[in-house]
Amino acid sequence: MLTKGPAKKVTIFINEDAPHRMTSLHDALMTFLLHKNVAGATATRAFSGFGSHHALHTPRMEATAEHLPIRIEFIETAERVDELLPTLYEMVTDGLIEVQDTVVIKLARPSTQPDPKLPHQRKAGPAKMLRIFLGEADKFEDEALYDAIVKKLRLMDIAGATVYRGILGYGAKGHQHKQSFLHVSRDLPIMLSVIDTPEKIRAAAEVIEGMLEDGLLVISDVEMIRLVRS
After folding, report:
1. Least buried of 117, 205, 217, 225, by fewest C-beta within 10 Å?
2. Are 88 and 156 within one domain?
3. 11 plus 100 within the same structural domain
4. Average pLDDT of span 107-126
5. Cβ proximity of 207 and 156 under 8 Å
6. Segment 142-182, tens digit of pLDDT
7. What range does the domain containing 208 cover?
């Protein structure tokens, strides 16, 4: 069984049209590795290449397109590779087999068991909602203002923020911003919604006010119910 640590990488170079009995060689090799419970194998089709015959194979050359190179690669323990090599050697009658030392740094397998449903914590109480209205084209130090605000809120450990992109709107100046089929506006309305404790919202509003040149801040009282999975 493949584990983290020293291992062997096997690479097999063959042609796409190389046969093996009643099927193609690359199909036969992949089927063999699958039946031998190899940890994983990948077959890739190259765009062009040449081998010991020194004939260039590319998809642009109709006569040689079917001869394009196939590369099969897998990683296994040294013991498993030693066990597989004799059969691979016998199957590959025209090609190249390469074995290299390698190191498995991380081996992550998804769990086949469903995650148990953990109980969640319910947090409820009075809170404040901060809504920020601005334009999509607004900038702060050479980056989109809404991006800069979200980054600042994360640094302030605000519980969460959501950015909404409008399709139509106007502000204090009376300029209408909209998106149409023929014209995509570069300054559609943007609204950010932020909810947290009154103390954190007040601190966030002070910081964001200093970042805005043209916009609107609205603070409302809300009742917050937050479900946190353990």
Report:
1. 117
2. no
3. yes
4. 73
5. yes
6. 899 999 999 999 999 998 899 998 877 665 555 555 554 44
7. 120-229
Residue 209 lies in a domain: yes
Whether 33 and 97 share a structural domain: yes
Domain membership flag for residue 39: yes
Cα-Cα-Cα-Cα dihedral of 89, 94, 100, 104, to 10°?
A: -80
Of residues 191 and 186, more confidently modeled: 191
Query: Phi/psi of residue 59, each to 5°?
Result: -70, -15
Q: Which residues 6+ apart lie within 8 Å of 122 measured at CB?
A: 225, 226, 227
Q: The CATH number of the domain where 63 resides is what? A: 3.30.70.120
